[in-house]
């Protein structure tokens, strides 16, 4: 023995792969050789005995993984935090390790029941800074970390493991003497990688390749300048040696079958706190909050979404209460404690949770934080960014509903604190008070009735994207909705691109306007130009729509039309003067349907009606959208997304485009009321009109 260090090992008398609790054990049940295991363990034991003092704990029958003493607990000074194993297959080891710690005079700390923590397998001291790197994601729970910080009085840095082959921190991460770090970055999420890079300077980071990682190169025992490990590549060996270490390789293949190697087989039991000054600084960055969710949490999948988003963002949760409603229609309620390794991640998680309707429960956070606008058109940092869902802000103890709900806005609170309004950044003025952070903000999801949750494929509640084959089906439903809206005096807004004309849809859209189905028309310069080109010259971008061929000189047609309309002053005048006699624009004018044409950089002309001031165009669009029951978005990515951005939840949106990407983009807003139809828009409109006519025909109804 050359060092005053103590290590704990456990002879492999009862070692075997008996069950599967990590991917290494899969396919290896009872496949390891006892003799070879004993031989390899003895070799390791021999190597270590030359370096340190090795103590032994008695192996117990029935607990084959007890050889992996790294998982006994975590030691610092005379304190030992006993492991709480995640899997029942290993929980029986706990009393034996506890007894051993006590026999050696350690004060043993035990975590609350059901809060797993797997000892030094998931907690490693930095050999320079003295802080504790603690892993979570597979075995140990993030919520165990604050206990470590408190009991051991040490700063804890939480690292999230994301590759199940590296389920314990010590399988992919090994701090070395002098502040060096041997590790496999892809085993960690990006946030954890950033944390590591912030703490360990690049020249001290020894990054290993996957081939070495799967040989458990990081599962090394480091004693001063010696590093003891399973066989590794020559390249890595050279790299480690270059950093001034002596690499000692010893074969541990039999233990790899259970998912362990050198480090797992040992527990360092002499750990002295590094310099008082370091150890007292910020104990643990782990933050916790409680949120409540109500609704049809199971049917709607909200609960899964909520829990997934917490873990996907590196957080952890504990369901404090889950009250499943009693009747078929009752809603359920969940109270969930969320923890995150840092304030930033907590904010990210809260943002997403609030978006799906969670409400923060902490008493002191039930008031929205307000900050004044200090510069016109600029919000305070961290302003709450709105979504499409109805949103409430808690001001002076009252929840108030935001007016003009739309996404990507700030919430401005009136001076008397009585009203809240969604305001675009550019509309903010000095003196406005804006909500910052997520405290005191909640979004409201209307609880779907249970029936609706068993969705038909293309029902409006389906948020589905249909393919060509099912177009008829979805058209039937849309036609039905259109009829309803018209008959009750509702509002249908159509936004469309010129493809409507190119694909022969213009007469059908004109029919919809004429028959009173459309209350407002939104588009760009092009739809109007090509519609009138077709009305006046029978072509669309120079193509004869009846014959499908280009007409001689046809490429100039649309400019001639623009020129004529300019002569008349605007579209209204051109229609009234009899220049335009059919088509979409004609019907808008003759039926007094308001339209807004928003300009763009590629516009020819433009028509005098085209609004080239985009801020003004946005304003006019949102004015038209107000009060809409449904928006039919026809083959224009630009206008569909523009419109989608202004539309609050609750407005049904039907997006028709031949490009699935456009349709998906729209349904990704997460609005349950939107439906996407991937098809040719001309075909869609013709089917729609056909269906509407069928609804009008008494014969069809009787049939
Ligand atoms: N079969 C054991 C388990 O899955 C292996 C433990 C390895 N220990 C370690 N510190 N990585 O729990």
Strand order across the largest sheet: 20-25-23-24-22-21-26
Low-confidence runs (pLDDT<50, min 5 residues)? 276-282, 449-464
Secondary structure tally: strands: 36
The fraction of residues assigned to DSSP E strands is 15-25%
Rg on CA atoms, Å: 34 Å
Bound molecules: arginine
**Distance from first to last alpha carbon:** 96 Å
**Averaged pLDDT, please?**
89
Assembly type of the shown chains?
single chain
Shape: elongated
Helix/strand class: alpha/beta
Number of helices: 24
Largest sheet: 7 strands, mixed
- Measured as a percent range, the helix fraction is 25-40%
Structure, explained:
By secondary structure, the chain is an alpha/beta fold. The strands form nine sheets. It has a seven-stranded mixed beta sheet, with no helix packed on it. β3 and β4 form a beta hairpin. α15 (506-514) packs parallel to α19 (584-590). The model is unreliable at 276-282 and 449-464 (pLDDT under 50). The chain binds arginine. The site of arginine has 15 residues, from loops. Arginine (ARG) is lined by residues 21-22, 65, 68, 70-71, 90, 121, 168, 170-171, 258-260, 264.
Please supply descriptive tags for the structure shown above:
24 helices; alpha/beta; 7-stranded mixed sheet; elongated; 7-stranded parallel sheet; binds arginine; 31% helix
């Amino acid at each position: 023995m050359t060092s005053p260090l103590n290590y704990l090992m456990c002879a492999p008398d009862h070692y075997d792969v008996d069950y599967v609790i990590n991917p290494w054990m899969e396919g290896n049940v009872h496949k390891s050789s006892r003799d070879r295991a004993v031989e390899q363990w003895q070799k390791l034991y021999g190597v270590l005995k030359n370096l340190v003092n090795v103590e032994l704990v008695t192996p117990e029958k029935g607990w084959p993984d007890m050889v992996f003493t790294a998982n006994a607990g975590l030691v610092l000074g005379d304190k030992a935090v006993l492991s709480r194993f995640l899997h029942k297959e290993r929980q029986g080891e706990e009393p034996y390790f506890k007894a051993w710690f006590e026999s050696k005079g350690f004060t043993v700390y035990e975590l609350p029941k059901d809060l797993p923590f797997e000892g030094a397998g998931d907690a490693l001291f930095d050999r320079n800074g003295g802080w504790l790197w603690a892993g979570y994601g597979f075995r140990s729970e993030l919520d165990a970390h604050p206990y470590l910080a408190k009991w051991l009085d040490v700063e804890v840095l939480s690292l999230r493991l994301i590759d199940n082959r590296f389920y314990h921190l010590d399988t992919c991460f090994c701090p070395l003497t002098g502040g060096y770090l041997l590790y496999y970055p892809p085993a960690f999420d990006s946030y954890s990688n950033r944390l590591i890079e912030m703490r360990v300077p690049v020249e001290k980071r020894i990054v290993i390749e996957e081939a070495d990682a799967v040989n458990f190169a990081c599962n090394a025992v480091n004693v001063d300048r010696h590093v003891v490990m399973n066989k590794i590549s020559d390249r890595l060996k050279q790299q480690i040696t270059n950093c001034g270490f002596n690499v000692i390789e010893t074969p541990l293949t039999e233990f790899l079958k259970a998912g362990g190697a050198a480090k797992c087989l040992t527990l360092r039991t002499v750990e002295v706190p590094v310099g008082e000054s370091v150890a007292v600084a910020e104990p643990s960055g782990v933050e916790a909050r409680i949120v409540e969710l109500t609704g049809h949490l199971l049917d709607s999948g909200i609960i899964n979404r909520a829990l997934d988003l917490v873990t996907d963002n590196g957080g952890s949760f504990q369901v404090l209460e889950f009250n499943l409603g009693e009747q078929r229609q009752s809603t359920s309620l969940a109270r969930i404690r969320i923890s995150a390794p840092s304030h930033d991640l907590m904010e990210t998680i809260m943002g997403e949770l609030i978006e799906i309707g969670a409400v923060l429960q902490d008493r002191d956070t039930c008031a929205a934080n307000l900050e004044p606008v200090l510069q016109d058109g600029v919000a305070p940092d961290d302003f709450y960014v709105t979504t499409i869902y109805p949103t409430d802000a808690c001001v002076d103890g009252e929840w108030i509903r935001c007016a003009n709900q739309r996404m990507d806005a700030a919430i401005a609170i009136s001076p008397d604190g009585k009203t809240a309004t969604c305001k675009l950044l550019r509309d903010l003025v000095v003196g406005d008070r804006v909500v910052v952070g997520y405290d005191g903000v909640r979004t409201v999801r209307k609880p779907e009735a249970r029936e609706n949750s068993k969705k038909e494929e293309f029902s409006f509640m389906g948020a589905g994207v249909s393919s060509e084959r099912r177009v008829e089906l979805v058209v039937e439903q849309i036609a039905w909705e259109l009829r309803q809206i018209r008959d009750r005096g509702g509002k249908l807004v159509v936004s469309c691109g010129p493809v409507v004309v190119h694909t022969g849809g213009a007469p059908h859209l004109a029919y919809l306007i004429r028959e009173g189905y459309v209350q407002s028309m939104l588009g760009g310069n092009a739809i109007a130009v090509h519609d009138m080109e077709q009305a006046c010259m029978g072509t669309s971008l120079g193509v004869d729509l009846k014959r499908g061929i280009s007409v001689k000189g046809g490429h100039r047609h649309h400019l001639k039309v623009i020129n004529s309309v300019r002569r008349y002053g605007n579209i209204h005048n051109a229609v009234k003067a009899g220049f335009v006699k059919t088509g979409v624009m004609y019907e808008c004018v003759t039926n007094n349907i308001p339209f807004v044409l928003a300009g763009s950089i590629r516009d020819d002309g433009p028509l005098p009606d085209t609004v080239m001031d985009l801020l003004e165009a946005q304003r006019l669009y949102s004015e038209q959208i107000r009060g809409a029951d449904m928006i039919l978005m026809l083959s224009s990515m630009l206008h569909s997304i523009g419109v989608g951005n202004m539309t609050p939840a609750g407005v049904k949106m039907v997006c028709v485009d031949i490009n699935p990407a456009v349709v998906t983009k729209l349904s990704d807003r997460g609005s349950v009321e939107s439906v996407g139809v991937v098809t040719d828009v001309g075909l869609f409109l013709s089917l729609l009109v056909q269906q509407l006519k069928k609804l009008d025909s008494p014969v069809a109804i009787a049939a």
